[in-house]
Amino acid sequence: MEAQNSITINGNEFLFEPGDTILEVARRNDIDIPTLCYLKGAAPRGRCGVCIVEVEGQDKLPASCSTLAANQMIVLTESPKVIDSRRKTIQKMLSSGNHNCAARGSDNRDWTAFQLNVQQDDKSDQLCPVWGDCRLQDLAYRYQISATGMPGTIVEYPMEDVNPFIVRDFSRCIMCGRCVAACREIQVNDAIDFGQNKLSNKIIAFDNKTLKDSDCVFCGECVQACPVGALVEKDVRYRVRQWETRKVRTTCTYCGVGCQLYLHVKDNKIVKVTGVEGVAPNYGSLCVKGRFGYNFVDSPERLTTPLIKENGEFREASWDEALDLVAERLKGIKEEYGSDSMGVLTSARVSNEENYIANKFTRATLKTNNIDHCARL
Amino acid sequence: MAGLAAAFGSGAMTNTIEDIGVADVILVTGSNTTENHPVLSSVVKRAVRFKGAKLIVVDPRRIKLTGFTNLWLRPNLGADVAWINGLMNVIINEDLYDKKFVENRTEGFEELKKAVEKFTPEKVEEITGIPARDIIEAARLYGKAKAGSILYCMGITQHTTGTDNVKSLANLSMLCGNLGIPGGGVNPLRGQNNVQGACDMGGLPNVFTGYQPVTDFDARKRMEEAWGVTDLPDKPGLTVTKMIPKAHDGELKALYIIGENPLVSDPDLNHAEKSIKNLDFLVVQDLFLTETAQIADVVFPSRCFAEKDGTFSNTERRVQRIRKAVEPPGEARDDWAIICDLSSRMGFPMPYENSQAIMEEISRVTPSYAGITYDRIEHVGLHWPCPSIDHPGTPILHGEQFTRGKGLFHGIDYIPPDERVDQDYPVYLTTGRVIYQYHTGTMTRKSEGLNECAPECFIEISPQDAKKYNLDNNSLVNIESRRGQIKAKLMISGVAVEGTVFIPFHFAEAAANRLTNAALDPVCGIPEYKVCAVKLSKAA
Q1: What percent of chain B shows pLDDT beyond 90?
Q2: Do A352 and B319 touch (CB under 8 A)?
Q3: Is A363 in contact with B310 (Cβ distance < 8 A)?
Q4: Do the chains contact at A345 and B262, CB–CB below 8 Å?
Q5: How high is the ipTM of this complex?
Q6: Which of A130, A264, B123, B200 gives 20 to 30 Å between its CA and that of A119?
Q7: pLDDT category of residue B264 using cuts at 50, 70 and 90
């Protein structure tokens, strides 16, 4: 083992490359250091204090996401000191706003009053909209924390829901900055940032405008990055719970980039879309169409039966009737005018398999090469 | 694609999306990337912001990417060959080209050299309106790059000189030895999810799958054997832009349209509409009763991407899975199943159990897809060519040699656009998309949120032109070309260049294509959507 490239984590020795952070070495070796503000692909901030570790010979607990691994470094990821610090950090976040899950606390009087307040802010009698799908809640359970007895903070900024896609609930924001990193470093849309001076406890769009009036293009990268309930899809909030859905991985149907995405399905309906992280070509990113443009799928205007036009009007028909009619007409035209009097426009929208079948049908059945699609249009 | 095929022997994005991130210089032209390929545009923006890549944008409109650029060249519409030749003129004169690459990997250099000789920076400034010093600076920037990536889209191809434009970009890239290397390449960005796949799968009049020519005897024999048929036609068929006039003249009797909406997307729409209505028989297979489906004789309901299994091939030639997530509405069926059933009724049975069985046949008859199976692409897609089951796929094309052997330079002269402004029609019109809508809007306009963000058509105009023609912001304006007329709201914007207005083509009720020119590129038959002459007046 190369002496200058070795680090000890929780008693085990690992190799690292110069430039690796402690977190990267740990993750590569299946050691689970919890993180919150860390966002893959963006510069580590060491901001939230959750991924701190104990390094032998250092008093302070450095953030593992932004501290480089060094030779002969001895690291503990779950020492009593680390756990104590993490608990305090998480407890502070938990008490900082409308985190009304069970983790918030079970002191009866406090709980009821708190819940009633939050319900008023939320205009809903349900628990937090991301209950069960929240990094902060997960951490609270993992470290057995409640915020019982901690003073609640006053909600300073009203909820923003004036755009069609994203609800910004500042009462649940823990200022971790993942959304800012997602916007500025991943999508590079530069629409949001940390506020300054009096607004230093708020994530703002330029000039403190609403997203709708800002440079935001609603890619939703920030929503996917948000570890709590501060940024939630408008159509999902209080309508869909994560455990009610199943996820199906597929490829986006819009432009040619071919983003990998998950369709979240509830009762045979797509209710949410997220990007598949860690996989080319999009590594979790999507655009506004890929993330929010799925309502056409269950539009009431979808065609549901074959239609045949008679006397200028469409009437519904069975598959047998419609297919027989088309087969007869095409055969007739082929016989009377020849194969090259027919053409097929296949589609840049349908699958490879379907294009292949259209190509085979045109050439082998119709016996013409008159096939094209709208690549040029 | 004909342009790249002529130069390299293969018409597709040469490099991958991720690979753009390792370029030293990125040249983007005729692509409003942030609106049309937002996720890919992030790769470009990250390369510039965080990795020190230099960005050259060549586009008449002040598109968002110009905010990230070191150098923004603003050419007159349809002057692409001129500025590209201008860059090469400087690169050759200043000895910045890759002599080793030119010597070993290419042919036709002398012809190129002769053709670009007269395109001095001063001459190019005259034609394109780009200052000579900017031409020189761009040439030096791109010419000196270790790896220079070229990205382009419909702003390059949708011209009567589209093929020439693409060949010119291929010239430029070869001249600087930027092919077959990471961070280099000539990269056409595909605007629709499966344009690449439709081309790969023989959805073109001149080729079977994998670009095997229908005129090639051996290719036809292979297909006849695989399909169990005889007498496959040996003459290339009609492109869509030739089918329409044939329908108009009554020579084309029947058209079968799958998932396309030419009654919004075709150029010179008034003419296209008349032509399609002149057909004896029109069948449309679609999700919705589109403008085109409304005039069909028979309409079949089909399934959308979320309701079926299969594959799409993305712009970087990566074959990726789609999977069924929800049940289709009513009796809607897979497009392939409808056609197979129809084929059986016409006397040629095409039975397949599922889409996977079709992919197995595709692999058998298509050398570039031979190694692609559903199992292999379960988690991550593969880039074709993937000629065998143990082949890892080909992220970067033309590594050792070009598909056609040596890369071919084409000496190309500048030809002005088909229609130019005059006294009667004094303003240029160019068309494109906006981020919240997609193509003819059949899907996006049925997604409420997207529609809320971009509900209607607009005419984007420069403040100078608005003043010149005495038109108010947000007022309703008539816009008229020699072919048609529409009304839309005026949007005064710093994005527009003086003398040119822009209209998105998504909106059937104010279809930009009622105005556009159907003049075609003589090689690939692409229409000149990006340039025509119009006039503006206040709507009553």
Answers
A1: 90
A2: yes
A3: no
A4: yes
A5: 0.95
A6: A264
A7: confident
**The CATH number of the domain covering residues in A156-239:** 3.30.70.20
CATH of segment(s) A3-78: 3.10.20.740
Q: Please tell me if residue A339 touches chain B, with a CB cutoff of 8 Å.
A: yes
Instruction: Compute how many other C-beta atoms are within 10 angstroms of the C-beta atom of residue A200.
Output: 10
Q: Cβ contacts (< 8 Å) between A329 and chain B: which residues?
A: 254, 281, 297
Domain end, chosen from B189, B212, B245, is at B189
pLDDT in tens, A334-376: 999 999 999 999 999 999 999 999 999 999 999 999 999 976 6
Domain of B148, CATH number, reads 3.40.228.10
Which residue do the tokens 């006294």 mark?
B423
Does residue A164 register a pLDDT over 80? yes
Tally DSSP H helices, then E strands, for chain B: 19, 19
Q: Which residue of A has its CA nearest to B518?
A: A377
Cβ of residue A1 closer than 8 Å to a chain B Cβ: no
Contact B283 A360 (CB under 8 A): no
* Residues A351, A353, A355: CA angle, nearest 5 degrees: 70
Mean pLDDT of A283-309: 97
| B485's tokens | 């007329």
d(CA B511, CA B527) in angstroms, rounded, equals 16
Which of B33, B162, B142, B40 minimizes the C-alpha distance to B92? B142
What's at B21, amino acid-wise?
A: G
Same domain, B379 and B465: no
Looking up residue B315, the CATH number of its domain turns out to be: 3.40.50.740
In terms of phi and psi (left: phi > 0; alpha: psi -120 to 50; beta: otherwise), the region of B393 is left
Angle at CA of residue B185, ends B90 and B82, nearest 5°: 35
Q: Give the dihedral of Cα atoms A266, A271, A273, A277; nearest 10 deg.
A: -40
Q: Count Cβ atoms below 10 Å from residue B388 Cβ, excluding itself.
A: 9
Considering chain A, tell me which residue range(s) the CATH 3.30.70.20 domain(s) occupy: 156-239
The highest-level CATH class for domain A245-297 is mainly beta
CATH of the domain at B505: 2.40.40.20
- Nearest CB among A188, A307, A373 relative to B299 is that of A307
Residue A1, pLDDT > 50, answer no
pLDDT at residue A98, as a whole number: 86
- Please give the Cα distance from B259 to B293 (Å, whole number): 10
